[in-house]
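Justification of resources, computational component.

The compute hours requested in this renewal are based largely on the per-chain cost of generating structure records like the one below. Each record pairs the submitted sequence with a full C-alpha cell output. That output is archived, and it is also reused by downstream analysis tasks.
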Amino acid sequence: MTIKSSRGFAARPGDPDAWVRTADKSDQGGAAKGDQFTARLTIDVTPDLRGRIKVIAFRRGVTVADMLRDLLAREFPNDDGGKA
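The structure output for this chain reads:
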C-alpha cells in the first residue's frame, strides 16, 4: 500500500522559524485558548548521563523535565533580536 503526500518525508520547511512556531493541528486537540503549547523533544543520552541527570534532579527536589526545561531556557533565551 502506497500513501501519497504532497510533502516528502522529513522535507525541509521553506521558513524554519514559522515551522517551529506553528503547532500541528493534531497536537492542539481542542485545548482552551491561553493553554501553553508544549512539544516533546527526544534526545539520546548514555545510560550514565541519564543516571546522573536523574540523581541531580532528585537531590534538587525537582523533576528531570522541569530541570531540563530550566537549563534549556537559560541556554537558549527568548531573544528575538528586537523583532515583535
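The two ends are 46 Å apart (CA to CA). The mean pLDDT is 77.
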